[in-house]
From TrEMBL:
It comes from Amycolatopsis minnesotensis. This is Transcriptional repressor NrdR. The lineage of its organism: Bacteria, Bacillati, Actinomycetota, Actinomycetes, Pseudonocardiales. A zinc finger (unnamed) spans 21-52. Keywords: ATP-binding, DNA-binding, Metal-binding, Nucleotide-binding, Repressor, Transcription, Transcription regulation, Zinc, Zinc-finger. Residues 64-154 form the ATP-cone domain. Residues 165-187 are annotated as: Disordered. PANTHER family: TRANSCRIPTIONAL REPRESSOR NRDR.
Amino acid sequence: MAAGEYPVAVGVREGDRPMRCPFCRHADSRVVDSREVDEGQAIRRRRSCSECGRRFTTSETMVLAVVKRSGVTEQFSRDKVVRGVRRACQGRPVDDDALQQLAQRVEESIRSAGVAEIPSHEVGLAILGPLRELDGVAYLRFASVYRSFTSVEDFEKEIADLRTAMAGAPAPDDPAAAEGEESKPGE
Ligand SMILES: [Zn+2]
């Protein structure tokens, strides 16, 4: 993951030990300025050490954890979304900008749910909608893996839904999507 692409929590969370002064290691500091960055998803704080008086900055990010089926938890990564979707987009007219935008939309929709932990299959679910808008073929490829298509009929049904969606009508509710217990790309 490229540095700076996804904010890493370096700050203070409730229950964590406080951030120490980087100069004298003192544990206590005073906040002199706070501002939201990254569209409110992180808070940058300017602090003044109560021991040596020097100033430093901390950045606090809301931690968004993805719980994999194995139970292992990892931090949500836009990069990982991009990698998973890129595979499905091979040979399709989808450039990197479009992939980055898609990953951003996925992150926003996940964060808007306001929970700190989400099951990994919900990341896949959040990808399906924007990907369908982006490229139908890539969507079918991704959905076939994500939803573990096992027959031609699975494709036929998905294509029928896709046609309906492209015609502007809302896609019929798909109970399989809500279950989403299958393995998928990016895991
Ligand atoms: Zn200090």
